[in-house]
What does this fold into?
Amino acid sequence: MANIPGIVITGGSGRMGQMLIRHVHEAETCQLAAVLVRPGHSWVGQDVGVAMGGAEIGVIATDDSVAAFAKAQAVIDFTTPDATVAFAGLAAQARAVHVIGTTGLTPDNLTKINAAARHAAIIRAGNMSLGVNLLTQLTKKVAAALDADFDIEVIEAHHRHKVDAPSGTALMLGEAAAEGRGVKLDDVRDSGRDGITGARKPGDIGFTAIRGGDIVGEHDVLFAAPGERITLRHVATDRSIFARGALRAALWGQDKAPGEYDMLDVLGLAET
It folds into this structure.
C-alpha cells in the first residue's frame, strides 16, 4: 500500500464526501489516508465507516487539517469557497494534488487558488463528469458556429439543498458559450430575471436555475433563433459519476507539474 497515493477527503460527513470515501476506500489504485470534517463535528474521533452507519474501515475522522494533509499525495475537496482556499494553501505546502469540486468561488478565491498552484498541481472543475465536459466542448463549438440571431440560455436544475446559483456547471457552460462567441461571460451574463426586465439584450447569455426535490443535476444549453431551436442536454442520475471523475483526476495529477488544470486536461480533451 505504501507505493500507491494516499488521498484525503475534506468535508467527509457531507453527501458528496461520503460518496468519495466509499469510492476511494474501495479503489485498488489508492488508499484513504484521512477524512477531514469541520472542527467540533460529531464524527471527530470516530471510525469513518461506523460514522457512516457501517463497519469499521480503519480511518478515524479528524478536524486537524495540518495532520491530515501531512499524509496526503492528493486531496479531494467538495466543500465551501473559504474552506477550499485554506485547503489550497495546505495542499501546496504538502505538495499534494488538490482536486477542487467546490462551486461558488469568487474572483478573490480564484486569485488565492492560483497562487497556491505555483507550488502544487490543482485540478479544478465545475463538474467532474465525462459527459458534462463533452457537453462543454460541444457548447463552445455550437456557439462558435451559430450567428448572433441565436440567443443562448443555460438552464440548470438541482436538489433543494443546493446553496449556490447558477451552478458551477452552468457557469462552466456559459464560459464555453462565451468563448465560442469570442466574448467574456462577465460582459454578457444575464441571470436573476424578475419583474419588468425589458426585452432580452442581443448577445446576452442567460441563466435559469431550478431547485427542487432530489435532482442530482440537469443542464441544458438552449440556442434559440426565430423559427428554430437547438438544445444540448446532460442529465446526471447518480452522484457517483462526480466521485469517479474526482478520483480519476487525483490519480492523473500525481506526476504533473505545479499549475492549474481542469477535467478537459484529465480526459485528454483540452485543445492545444
User: Anything to note?
Assistant: Residues 92 and 107 are 19 Å apart (CA to CA). The chain is about 35% helix and 25% strand.
